[in-house]
Write a structure and sequence with these properties.
With 961 residues, the protein is α+β, with helices and mostly antiparallel strands. It contains 29 helices and 24 strands. β21 and β22 form a beta hairpin. The longest helix is centred in the C-terminal third of the chain and has 29 residues.
């Protein structure tokens, strides 16, 4: 069968059903100087170890490229981890610097273009056979087909006609993948498929969004802008790594005008930017700079720009747009707002999917209204025009000129640029509302869609919206005199700049009364918290769930998934969220409550005020203090919007009539009013406050970890009163349902450190080849995280890997005093040397016999699934015990739990399950087995004491099924 489809097959086609799965190594320090690879080189890699792994079809190495092909993605990940690559340094040569004429002035202007967020992951597939290649891309990547075709032809040094690119209907992602992520995945799949001559599927890896930086250069030197990095779309990593020699760019910015020159001290770090993003950043910087230079010269910015437009056709379009905007101008109302208008234009050479080239011109006039006190920006009017010409000789006269005024789509496009950075409680997976089309300056802005600036464009029409950012920035400066040089625009930054210009004087007396009022409010809040008897809040008829929009309910569902509500509020065999799960605590057994909207046994008649009080203050609707086994100490950090959304979601779910068992703790823990004092000591009911000095991803991760995710409930140690410890003990490891919850505050350090990518995949799939499988209470957490988008998991990784945990050295034994040494010597002298020797021999003999017994048990019960490179994979993943974190832990408790009870409900069905051996092995046999496993697979660690009492205790702590 040929791997190449007919030339006419441009429609969507499914790839062969028996796809293999591939993964490729990534260098720790990848770099490109615009023409050659300057990053890490692959010194060595354990190819044979990877080939010995179960499910591996092939292991490929070409120059500094290495990858694996396996029957499933899980096997591919496991084999990739066993490659254990060794990379040598980047070895970047010192850059001699640009020509002397291209130096930046002392007071250079710097423009930043920040994409809204990373793209999604998507699948691609490639089949390389007999010098032909067929590539399957997601259907929304049709605009990238020509670019990727050229890149793959360059990778193999083939003519472009040898590469066919078709749409893969089922390869679509929830959001569009970034062009470079797809490019890398396609090149990886092509190289791996060439090695096995079979179709190979590769999932794209989500790269970090790149902030594109352009700086003003000396206007006498030629180019007006310079860039610290090569201003081009880099080649695929596969081409950089697998081919030596020159590596030209895969794409160039297509904006007409001078290409930004290299800066004096360039960076060779890979720039994660597509052609569309390069175009957007270049137009934003160039048109903003024209405006600023006109003002510096004392000229009218619009007239100045029109005089300097060289292209007659573009100048005519710009003139018509400006005239149309002037004709439509109206007298500004006296409403205290700052108003201004701005102009920008762009000219881009485009290539259609069929290879036809077009010249496209675009011009914008945008008007803004700004609230001085808040810095809030509203785009009130847009006049936009575009013109295009087919550049093929036979079509040279064709033209399409159009000017639009107040078009709702254009207003929505412009308003997306003033959304600012994502809020810490922004749930990107929730379906967006349709944007409202309004031109009222004080109207509420339309909701921001998940992708405010996708691939550097504001909408699918690409070039027509390119001038929008510069036009708005110019209008803001016209209104306020403040220049914003970073897009999308942040109203907070503008507010601070405007505040610096105001002389806000407040009298001492006014400040004194302010402090007095604040103090009185604080005392009132303290008294309310300390008062042990809380009033009951009235029951209601319950909310009408139809009052909540589909988007709000979806947002609430994601909040509930992140909080894993169903795991604790569902009893074994019971209905979802109907309560009744028994939680063992040091103070007794606590039963979870029914949180379905049943009016009698659930929360169906709770008002939102009652719900919020329970979530923030730990007080039941009837006034009872709730035990902090319910993690209201974390849920209190929820934002108001998330609290409302969660309430709406829970009230929209099916009602279940179920009365859980009553919680009856012994004295004094049954005295619930005492919890008011506990709350005073250990609970802060204030919602989460983002750290303005931190990036958006860190704040989002902190919100999820500290708040709704309540990670500290399991992963932080607790004091004698059951409160989570803070400071350096925060997330330093704890206990949960008989399992040891490992420390999270030093994941990125130590001998068994997690990389960010490993931690992301563990949270996404419940499995890491270098650390093991999620089991016990962590498995349902992975189920909840599966509902969240990749950006949320990466935000969690960003936060956890930045925690300031400290690895403290083990405390050495205290040196013995002289008296103690003398006493010990005296006692030793009283003992017979023969007895001492006999004891030592007996201990060694016992250890040898125990480990021999453990080895026999391992060979009979464990080796078929866990022995490296031995036999098939029977139940799913084949975890390597030498890499398993539990075997390197200070305590064997988690290992004992897995041996006793198995993994009956894996975090991911693809991982398979593990049977428990509690019914077939007694406590002594399990002690022998864990002693053998520790000695064989973690020989550098200290042996665990064999404690059958602990094993017996854990045996009684069977997980709910």
């Amino acid at each position: 069968m040929s791997a190449c489809l007919p030339e006419t097959a441009t429609h969507a086609v499914e790839p062969p059903s028996e796809l293999l799965h591939g993964l490729a190594l990534r260098p720790p320090d990848a770099a490109w100087d615009g023409s050659r690879y300057r990053g890490s080189r692959l010194d060595s890699v354990r190819l044979d170890d990877a080939r010995a792994q179960a499910g591996v079809v092939a292991v490929v190495r070409r120059e500094h490229f290495a990858g694996v092909v396996a029957v499933t993605p899980l096997h591919a990940r496991q084999a990739l981890a066993s490659l254990a690559p060794a990379w040598r340094g980047a070895g970047r040569p010192a850059y001699a610097g640009p020509p002397a004429a291209v130096t930046a002035p002392v007071a250079e202007r710097e423009y930043l273009w920040q994409p809204a967020e990373a793209g999604a992951s998507a699948r691609v597939a490639a089949w390389c056979l007999d010098g032909r290649l067929t590539l399957w891309l997601p259907p929304d990547a049709s605009a990238l087909r020509a670019l990727i075709r050229r890149e793959l032809a360059a990778l193999f040094d083939w003519p472009e006609q040898a590469v066919d690119v078709v749409a893969w209907p089922s390869g679509a992602a929830a959001r569009a993948a970034h062009a470079l992520d797809l490019l890398d995945a396609a090149a990886d799949a092509a190289l791996l498929s060439e090695a096995v001559a079979r179709p190979v599927c590769v999932a794209s890896r989500v790269g970090e969004p790149a902030t594109l930086v352009l700086r003003e250069a000396d206007p006498a030197a030629g180019p007006a802008l310079c860039s610290p990095q090569p201003w081009a779309m880099r080649p695929s990593l596969a081409r950089l790594l697998a081919r030596s020699g020159p590596a030209p760019a895969s794409g160039q910015a297509t904006v007409l005008g001078e290409t930004p020159a290299p800066a004096q001290a360039p960076s060779h770090a890979l720039l994660h930017a597509s052609v569309d993003e390069l175009n957007a950043a270049q137009v934003f910087a160039g048109e903003s700079l024209w405006h600023e230079r006109a003002l510096a010269a004392g000229e009218d910015p619009v007239g100045w720009r029109l005089r300097h437009l060289d292209d007659a056709r573009g100048r005519e379009l710009a003139r018509q747009v400006v005239e149309q905007a002037a004709m439509d101008a109206s007298v500004a109302p006296r409403d205290g707002l700052l108003r201004g208008s701005g102009f920008a234009t762009a000219q881009v050479r485009c290539q259609a999917e069929d290879g036809a080239e077009h010249m496209v011109w675009s011009a914008w006039v945008a008007e803004v209204a700004i609230q001085p006190a808040t810095g809030r920006i509203e785009v009130t009017r847009v006049v936009a025009g575009h013109d295009s010409q087919d550049l093929r000789p036979a079509q040279g006269a064709s033209t399409r000129l159009a000017i639009t005024r107040q078009q709702p789509e254009r207003l929505a496009d412009a308003r997306r640029l003033i959304a600012g950075p994502a809020a810490f409680d922004d749930w990107r997976a929730a379906a967006p509302l349709a944007p409202a089309a309004t031109s009222d300056a004080l109207a509420t802005p339309a909701p921001t869609p998940p992708e405010a600036v996708r691939a550097g464009r504001l909408d699918l029409d690409g070039v027509a919206t390119l001038p929008a950012a510069a036009a708005i920035a110019n209008a803001i400066e016209d209104a306020t005199g403040v220049r914003l040089r970073q897009a999308p625009f942040d109203a907070g930054q503008l507010r601070l700049a405007l505040a610096d210009r105001r002389a806000a004087q407040r009298g001492v007396l006014r400040r004194g009364w302010g402090w007095l009022a604040a103090g009185a409010a604080g005392l009132a809040a303290l008294a309310t918290t300390m008062w042990p008897l809380k009033p009951a809040l009235p029951l209601t008829a319950g909310p009408d769930p139809t009052l909540y929009s589909a988007q709000a309910i979806e947002r609430g569902r994601l909040v509930a998934a992140a909080g894993d509500c169903v795991a604790c509020h569902t009893a074994p065999g019971g209905a979802r969220n109907a309560g009744g799960l028994a939680l063992d605590t040091p103070f007794g057994v606590i039963y979870t409550t029914n949180i379905t909207p049943d009016p009698q046994t659930g929360i169906g008649r709770w008002s939102f005020a009652a719900f919020e009080r329970a979530m923030r203050h730990g007080v039941h609707q009837d006034g009872r203090q709730l035990y902090p086994a319910f993690p209201y100490t974390a849920y209190a950090k929820l934002s108001d919007a998330d609290m409302q959304a969660l309430y709406g979601y829970l009230m929209s779910q099916p009602a279940v009539a179920a009365t859980p068992p009553l919680t009856e703790l012994g004295f004094p823990f049954n005295l619930r009013p005492l919890l008011a004092g506990w709350n005073l000591l250990f609970h802060d009911p204030k919602p989460f406050t983002p750290d303005p000095s931190r990036e958006a991803a860190w704040n989002r991760g902190a919100y999820l970890v500290e708040g709704v995710g309540h990670c500290a409930a399991c992963h932080s140690p607790r004091n004698a009163l059951g409160a989570e410890k803070g400071g350096l003990a925060y997330l330093a490891g704890g206990q949960a349902e008989g399992w040891n919850a490992p420390a999270l505050n030093r994941l990125a350090s130590g001998e068994r450190a997690w990389s960010g990518e490993e931690l992301y995949h563990y949270l996404r799939t419940g499995y890491s080849p270098r650390h093991g499988v999620a089991a016990g209470p962590m498995a349902p957490v992975i189920h909840g995280l599966a509902e969240l988008p990749d950006s949320d998991l990466r935000a969690i990784v960003t936060y956890l890997t930045a925690l300031p945990g400290q690895v403290r050295p083990a405390t050495p034994p205290a040196p013995a005093t002289g008296a103690a040494i003398a006493a010990a010597s005296s006692r030793a002298a009283a003992s017979a040397d023969a007895d001492s020797a006999s004891i030592a021999v007996d201990a060694e003999t016992t250890r040898t016999l125990r480990r021999a017994s453990g080895e026999r048990i391992y060979q009979n019960a464990c080796a078929v699934c866990h022995e490296p490179g031995s036999g098939p994979t029977l139940f799913g993943a084949k975890p390597l015990l030498a890499q398993n974190t539990n075997l390197h832990a200070a305590s064997p408790d988690n290992l004992v739990q897995v041996i006793l009870h198995g993994i009956q409900a894996p975090a991911d069905d693809a991982l398979g399950y593990m049977p428990g051996f509690g019914d077939s092995l007694d406590d002594r046999q399990i002690g022998d087995l864990i002693d053998y496993l520790r000695a064989r697979f973690a020989p550098e660690e200290k042996a665990w004491p064999v404690d059958t009492t602990t094993i017996g205790r854990l045996r009684q702590h069977a997980p709910p099924q």
